[in-house]
Write a structure and sequence with these properties.
Layout: H1 9-12, H2 14-24, E1 29-38, E2 42-51, E3 54-64, H3 72-83, E4 92-96, H4 103-111, E5 115-119, E6 125-128, E7 131-134, E8 146-155, E9 160-169, E10 177-181, H5 186-193, H6 198-206, H7 221-247, H8 251-254, H9 264-277
Parallel strand pairs: 1-4, 4-5
Antiparallel strand pairs: 1-2, 2-3, 5-10, 6-7, 8-9, 9-10
Length: 290
Amino acid sequence: MAQERQITHEDYFVPYAEVLLAHLAVQTLVLVIDGSVVGRGCIALMIHVVYKGCALPLAWLVRHGKKGHFPEALHIALVKQVHALIPAGAQVVLLGGGEFDGTDLLRTVHEGGWSYVGRTGCHVTALWQGETLRLDTLGWWSKPGTLVDFPEAFVPGEMYGPLLLICCWAKGYQEPLYLVSNMSSVEEACRLYTKRFRIETFFSDQKSRGFHLHKSHLADPMRLARLLMAACLAYIWIVYLGSICVKEGWTRVIHRSERCDLSLFQLGLRILEHFLNEDLCIPVAFHIVI
């Protein structure tokens, strides 16, 4: 009896991810790494590329666990997996939350030729101009609506650096964000970091506002990884439909003419329903044109 062919990410998803990245690489590729609960008793670590308010999935790892952080070794493994998909010569910046400030990960990203901007904890100690300081003391030197930066800083112990430390205190917030980056521009690093939250839209679209993956009772990481493969391909296609909807002016047919407050994913779902109801030809593609 012939052996059943395995359904792998490399065979069934990577070709589409490579085409997607090739189309988006005319601009800086903004990648976001984050994790979320999937299925029953499992969590997924994912990397996405940001496109017009959406986070389009590129790669993921699934393992058992209700919540919590992945080991740094898995962060690095996923980054290396995506690194192999990036078109030659493309400019890349990786964004991550407080879980992703490990020095081994940052070193891997930097040595791979990428920029990074990530959140770090206020308890972290850094070395700057020969003096040791805790990041939470940076708040003493700033106020809401200001930026305080410390270029050429190092993380003691491993003496990792030089890197850029930033105390970013946005107006209306009770406390500042503490960021680390290998970029030279403080303003650009902070501007890019705001894009990190686009990944939350993806997770809500995959769950309560879209495919309802949170209702899956799958508990096996391999089966969930395969389910994500199908869901992520569908997501990219639906976003493609949404982008075509905007480009071709179909928004006024399914939404409103004066303004649009729907995401590309929600527009894609609506235009797909319109195509089905009207028995129209449905375009299918997995690339996004800038």
